Amino acid sequence: MNLAYDDLGPEAGRPVLLVHGHPFDRSMWRPQAEHLSENGYRVVTPDLRGYGQSTTRDTKTGLDVFANDLIDLADHLRLESFVLGGLSMGGQIVMQLVRDHPGRVAALLLADTFAGLDTPQAKQARYDTADRITEEGMERYAEELLPKMISRQTRATRPDVEAHVRKMMRNAPKEGAAAALRGRAERPDYTPTLNRIDVPTLVVVGTEDEFTPVGDAELIHREIEDSALVVIEGAGHLPNLERETEFDEALSAFLTGKRFTP
């Protein structure tokens, strides 16, 4: 197994596999991994190839490649069926995986993500950004992204979250991040396949998310019949870090079959 990962909680616990976004690493899910594992779940949080401690030689990594890596990890850990969650790019990888391997997933978490394609301008911007960070590294890119990643309120009140997000982005390996950007630019449209998802799904979004606004989450919620939508006030693109208590409560309620009203 080539992916670095953490495996927390009892081996016999209900397995939950959480997929980080770009340009982060598995520490993005630390609050949820700790919360769920303390409540008896087995929580697996990998670094995607090219991120964190997982290496790659790719110059372009398609989301299908990331999805297959996760299936390989699940096989390695003997997880026949598992809860699968992802945020942003991680959510798109989740949609790819459930499309390609529908029998493996027992329930879904789709956080601050969107199912459709990029505009031509946004697609080109991914290619351009990949070339740029390959040449100059992650530092300036991270500083430009930071104000859009977390809400103004979070930046004013949670310096710990801001520091964590900045550290993950600045430390992301530039080659892996660039390869993912190129692959993501060429991803398919997941919208037509959403109505084929037949497992319970939790859709979460922050009210202040600039990258994937509430409307994107509402579309996913409408298309997946057995889904619940939770909108977290005051959070930007990373509600699991910005408002971890509300996020954890929503996820725990979902996993136990209860309704959660923030």
Automatic annotation (TrEMBL):
InterPro entries named among the record's database cross-references: AB_hydrolase_1, AB_hydrolase_fold, AB_hydrolase_sf, Epox_hydrolase-like
Domain AB hydrolase-1: 15-243
Domain of life: Bacteria
One Gene Ontology MF term: catalytic activity
PANTHER family associated with the record: AB HYDROLASE-1 DOMAIN-CONTAINING PROTEIN, MONOACYLGLYCEROL LIPASE
Name of the molecule in the record: Pimeloyl-ACP methyl ester carboxylesterase
Organism: Amycolatopsis tolypomycina
